[in-house]
Amino acid sequence: MEPEPDPGRDPRIDGETTAEDLLRTLAPQVVGVLTRRFGDFDWAEDAVQEALLAAATQWPDEGVPGNPRGWLIQVASRRMTERVRGEQARRRREDLAARQLPADRWTAPAADREDPAGRDDSLVLLFLCCHPALSPTAAIALTLRCVGGLTTSQIARAFMVPETTMGQRISRAKQRIRTSEVPFRMPEDEERAGRLDAVLHVLYLIFNEGYATSEGPDLQRVELSREAIRLTRAAHQLLPDDSEVAGLLALMLLTHARSAARTGPDGELIPLAEQDRGLWDARAIDEGTALLTATLPKGPLGPYQV
Question: Does some domain include residue 99?
């Protein structure tokens, strides 16, 4: 029997992963690269959406490139450059983008080669979306869209509002971050602590959407759950002494461990008592149990640990 894929691993490792899964995982990383290089989160998100559309059109016919992340960065960078040049009347925005570029000309990684030194800015992007200038609701919606890869319609259903309303809310949130001109970097300790509650809430919602999807014929979207675990693991590495970050990671691991046994051959739900426990991911269970064992005696008890 093939082992359950390790939670949070690069989806290119898993042979059954589709191009759509890969794009969803790479999108926030590419948004992070472009935001860091060009200094405009709103434009970067739009450019990456265009690059994702190009990939969805071309990759099925031409195949996935050797470095899909580099391919997306190249295409999205061209879109960013075209937009900067085309906005001659908006000199301030063009100057801001130019100031964010390094002194030496930046070159996107090759699309046909591996990029072992590639920097993953997903966690920085996560904290950026949870900006203090935004209301908690706006921060959660924006993060689900830009980091979690959920569609506007999925987020609208989660908040029980019309899709157009949610689209406007996300657009206003991006505009507010743009006008704040906050630097694209990990916030300092005190500022980071103020955003952490919103970050954990967002990660929990992303995981829930993967555990029991609100759209489509499938019960679960395992790639979303894995992405939530990956980001939460990164947050735990950043804040190893925070008991609630550890509690959330443990909750995800222990819940996700049963994913392979939750559905039958036709996608039907299998109750817990009837699940084949041999399909449960023992490594994830051991890791989640160890996290809880180490965390419960140390910090205040919060909702994720409970």
Answer: yes
Cα gap 288→285, rounded to integer Å: 5
Predicted confidence (pLDDT) per residue in 131-174, tens digit:
777 887 788 888 888 887 778 887 888 777 899 999 898 888 88
With a threshold of 0.70, does the pTM exceed it?
no
- Within a domain: 29: yes
Asked whether residue 269 is assigned to any structural domain, the reply reads no
What confidence tens digit (pLDDT) does each residue in 76-115 have?
Answer: 888 888 877 776 445 654 556 555 555 444 455 555 554 4
Could you give the number of structural domains in the chain?
A: 1
28 bridge partner residues = none
234, with CB counted inside 10 A (0-12, 13-18, 19+), is middle
Residue 283 lies in a domain: no
Domain, as residue range, for 35:
12-104
Residue among 250, 258, 233 nearest 286 (CA): 250
Pick the closest to residue 27 from 65, 55, 57, 62 (CA basis).
Answer: 55
Q: What are the start-end ranges of the H helices in the chain? A: 19-38, 41-62, 68-86, 91-100, 122-129, 136-146, 152-159, 163-180, 189-211, 222-238, 243-256, 282-295
Beta bridge pairs of residue 269: 263
